[in-house]
């Protein structure tokens, strides 16, 4: 049996590696930070070699300097998604990768494809309507706006599949990630839709489809030299980061819901059968036979980072302490969290953040708490849409860096009216990748519970009463200012 398994996750602001035993004990964690480019308003990109592959090489070398490469029995990689990376005949990227829904350049392509294919037909076959979140319109944008690049395009990658290609030479993509390449994948049939693929990406050979725990191949001699991993090490296919994180906390049964506190807030609800909702994303899950309904806010942790930088790099612990001294409702300060547009429960790339009720008595703690409360109202808004789709949450698990400390999770519980489980291991999607790797080589079962126990965060009745009063004002604030938001966003 393998001594260790290695999981690596490529995130928006950093990448992380987790070395674990096949039983789920975390042995080592390594993190590297990286940059994300925003070359124009609405454009968000990453360099696949300088960020994705470089991070994987750096993290692997760090760990193999501490542990023998031969002790690592398998590797699995997840990453941000859906992304659109195109590469030439030699597999080399032709341009930076276009990131997930925070990149809104392809809204026009999404609208045009929706009109051509039929929005209801796309929703029925793919599980989601086309939006800035969909990878298909991003490919169409490249084809229409960078024809020289498209003429040389032979491969389409997401973050995890590009690293798998570099590690093994295999051109594969997991079913879940493919499902987020709307309108290219039929989630009911579990296969590409060739007639739609020819409209979106004519002539492009799409990758072979696998499940995250399938083996894509093994580490090549060239990849071993770059990473320090042993040549021949098995490599699992992996998936998009949020679904790897769901695996890390055993969110894979109907009624399970995961709230991920990251740069963006993300939601995954497991359903007993395929569910489609026009404002949310219905997909296949991380295992065959599993179905999920998902949503994602465009800004959450990124707003707290923005405010930290705005206040001179003040430590998060200090900001949280100041916000904790402010009562629920932030002494009459109300915010909207749409700093980077919004993805769900409404798709609006031109939505913008708002601070209402400012007075001279408000300080940094008030503003910081109001921003946390804004994200909590966004959670409530999303969960209301899940309920409208008939998806009830019987178990809610909170994950991500924002779960450290109890202020943010407490605000969300009180504002959204949910009790959240915070598991003991919160190292993220890379931990789920390690489990995928263990399952892929038969060192663990998908039914094994790696991450049980933890703490529970329940609503505070007094705070909940305040938030019940403010939530309608939050919704009204958006409705009354949305035209102004759009006018300002468009200059």
TrEMBL record:
* GO biological process terms, semicolon-separated: D-xylose metabolic process
Family membership, please give it: Belongs to the FGGY kinase family.
Every copy of the Carbohydrate kinase FGGY N-terminal domain together lies at 5-242
The Carbohydrate kinase FGGY C-terminal domain is annotated at: 258-440
Q: Which PANTHER family match?
A: SUGAR KINASE, XYLULOSE KINASE
Sorted UniProt keywords: Carbohydrate metabolism, Kinase, Transferase, Xylose metabolism
SUPFAM superfamilies to which the protein is assigned, alphabetical: Actin-like ATPase domain (SSF53067)
Organism (species): Jiangella alba
Gene3D superfamilies from the UniProt entry: 3.30.420.40
The protein in question is named Xylulokinase
What InterPro entries does the annotation carry? ATPase_NBD (IPR043129), Carb_kinase_FGGY (IPR000577), Carb_kinase_FGGY_CS (IPR018483), FGGY_C (IPR018485), FGGY_Carb_Kinase (IPR050406), FGGY_N (IPR018484)
Name the PROSITE patterns on file: FGGY_KINASES_2
Any idea which GO molecular function terms this record carries? kinase activity; phosphotransferase activity, alcohol group as acceptor
Q: What highest taxon heads this organism's lineage?
A: Bacteria
């Amino acid at each position: 049996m393998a001594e260790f398994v290695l999981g690596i996750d490529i995130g928006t602001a950093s990448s992380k590696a987790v070395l674990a035993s096949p039983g789920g004990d975390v042995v080592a964690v390594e993190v590297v930070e990286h940059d994300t480019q925003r070359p124009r308003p609405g454009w968000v990109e990453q360099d696949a070699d300088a960020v994705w592959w470089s991070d994987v090489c750096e993290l692997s070398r760090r760990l193999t300097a501490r542990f023998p490469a031969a002790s690592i029995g398998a590797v699995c990689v997840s990453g941000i998604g859906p992304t659109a990376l195109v590469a030439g005949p030699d597999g080399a990227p032709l341009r930076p990768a276009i990131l997930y829904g925070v990149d809104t350049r392809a809204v026009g392509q999404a609208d045009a494809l929706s009109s051509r294919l039929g929005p209801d037909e796309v929703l029925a076959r793919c599980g989601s309507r086309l939006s800035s979140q969909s990878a298909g319109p991003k490919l169409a944008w490249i084809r229409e706006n960078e024809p020289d690049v498209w003429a040389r395009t032979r491969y389409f990658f997401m973050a995890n599949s590009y690293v798998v290609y570099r590690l093994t030479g295999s051109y594969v993509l997991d079913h879940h990630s493919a499902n987020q390449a709307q309108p290219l994948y039929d989630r009911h049939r579990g296969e590409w839709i060739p007639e739609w693929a020819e409209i979106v990406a004519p002539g492009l050979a799409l990758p072979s489809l696998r499940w995250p725990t399938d083996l894509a191949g093994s580490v090549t001699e060239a990849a071993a030299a770059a990473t320090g991993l042993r040549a021949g090490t098995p490599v699992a296919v992996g998936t998009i980061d949020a679904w790897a994180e769901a695996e890390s906390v055993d969110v894979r049964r109907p009624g399970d819901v995961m709230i991920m506190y990251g740069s963006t807030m993300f939601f995954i609800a497991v359903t007993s059968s395929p569910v489609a909702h026009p404002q949310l994303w219905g997909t296949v899950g991380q295992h065959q036979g599993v179905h999920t309904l998902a949503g994602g806010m465009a800004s959450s942790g990124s707003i707290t980072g923005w405010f930290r930088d705005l206040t001179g790099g003040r430590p998060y612990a200090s900001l949280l302490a100041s916000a904790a001294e402010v009562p629920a409702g932030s002494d009459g300060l109300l915010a909207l969290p749409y700093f980077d547009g919004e993805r769900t429960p409404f798709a609006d790339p031109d939505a913008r953040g708002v601070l209402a009720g400012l007075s001279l008595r408000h300080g940094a703690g008030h503003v910081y708490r109001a921003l946390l409360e804004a994200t909590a109202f966004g959670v409530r808004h999303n969960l209301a849409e899940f309920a409208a789709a008939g998806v009830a949450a019987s178990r809610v698990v909170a994950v991500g860096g924002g779960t450290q400390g109890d202020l943010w999770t407490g605000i969300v519980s009180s504002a959204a009216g949910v009790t959240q489980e915070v598991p003991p291991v919160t190292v993220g999607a890379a931990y789920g990748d390690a489990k995928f790797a263990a399952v892929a080589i038969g060192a663990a079962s998908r039914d094994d519970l790696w991450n049980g126990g933890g703490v529970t965060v329940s609503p505070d009745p007094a705070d909940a009463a305040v938030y019940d009063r403010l939530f309608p004002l939050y919704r009204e604030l958006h409705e009354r200012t949305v035209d102004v938001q759009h006018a300002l966003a468009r200059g």
